[in-house]
Specification:
Blueprint: E1 13-16, H1 21-29, E2 34-37, H2 42-60, H3 63-69, H4 74-101, H5 104-120, H6 124-135, H7 141-169
Parallel strand pairs: 1-2
């Protein structure tokens, strides 16, 4: 599975009845990301998904690229991340209004702006969603609404990641 370039980001979990301590290491050494044991509790699954979501964070935004831009200054990093969230909030509102009004020209302009900002912070999934929105046939209101919803969803994912990152890593900065 890992040899396929498409599968490199797949989260593989071993699922076994064996509870020996070295089983988890064997699973990880075999190329899996994690291992859970039978019987599985809801708590076990939640912890596994939490670990998985942290691994997927690199697909949401590149904190490293922003940190490079600000020269490693944590104060400036926090300000930039908060400004991204403020811009995201405005962009979501604008997308909803333009979609409702079927203002295609403005919708494309907003999508370009969002994509540009996403490129700076290397938010690849948001860039892809914007590309899909920009390529949709705007006569097809259903697809347009679906792609607007996808962009808004990716913005929400980015905002949640920023919130968690700031809380986990920059909460000591006012």
């Amino acid at each position: 599975i890992r040899l396929s370039s498409m599968a490199k980001k797949i989260y593989i979990v071993g699922y076994t009845i064996m509870t020996e301590n070295d089983i988890k290491n064997k699973c990880i050494n075999a190329g899996m990301n994690d291992c859970i044991f039978k019987p599985v509790s809801l708590n076990d699954l939640c912890l596994m998904f939490e670990r998985f979501s942290r691994l997927q964070a690199e697909d949401i935004i590149s904190i490293e690229s922003i940190t490079e831009i600000v020269g490693g200054n944590r104060d400036v990093l926090k300000v930039i991340l908060k400004k991204i969230q403020i811009a995201n909030s405005k962009d979501k509102d604008d997308l909803i209004i333009c979609n409702f009004d079927l203002n295609v020209k403005r919708l494309k302009k907003i999508s370009h702006r969002i994509k540009g900002a996403a490129m700076i912070v290397k938010a690849e999934r948001l860039q892809i969603s914007c590309d899909k929105l920009l390529q949709v046939d705007f006569e097809d209101e259903k697809n347009m609404s679906d792609f607007v919803a996808d962009v808004i969803n990716e913005i929400n994912v980015l905002d949640k990641f920023i919130e968690e990152f700031v809380f986990d890593n920059l909460s000591d900065i006012k």
